[in-house]
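Tutorial, part two.
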Amino acid sequence: MVAKQIESIIKRASTETFSDSEKYIIDDFLQSTGGGNPANWTVIDADRFIARFDGADVSNEFLSGAITRLAQIAPAHIVSRVLGSDRDGDGIPLYEELKLGTRATKYDTPQDIAVARQKQYISPGGDMEM
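Running the prediction step on this input gives:
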């Protein structure tokens, strides 16, 4: 199940577009944090990238954009490693943190996680989804 969700994220990332300036900024960031061209990253480079966000005050939006771009460049097994990581130790992998809207780089309490999951079941109009 997890592998299918990550595969779906990687597939969707390939359809996202970035302006040239966004690509430049994100690519520079990826190269400086992971250790060179993401197309050639190893597991060690992926771990270095993940560690860069450990406890950092980075928005989920920025992190999501960086991972989307990473998914367009890096091998799938590297992106899977990043998306499946849980550097903040709260038991929620990165891909799920981004989906739930919980803090991807800081520990979320079980109550924070429960509230975020509950919000997923409530539609914008306040009605429960079925």
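The chain has one domain: 2-120. In part three we will examine how such features are distributed along the chain.
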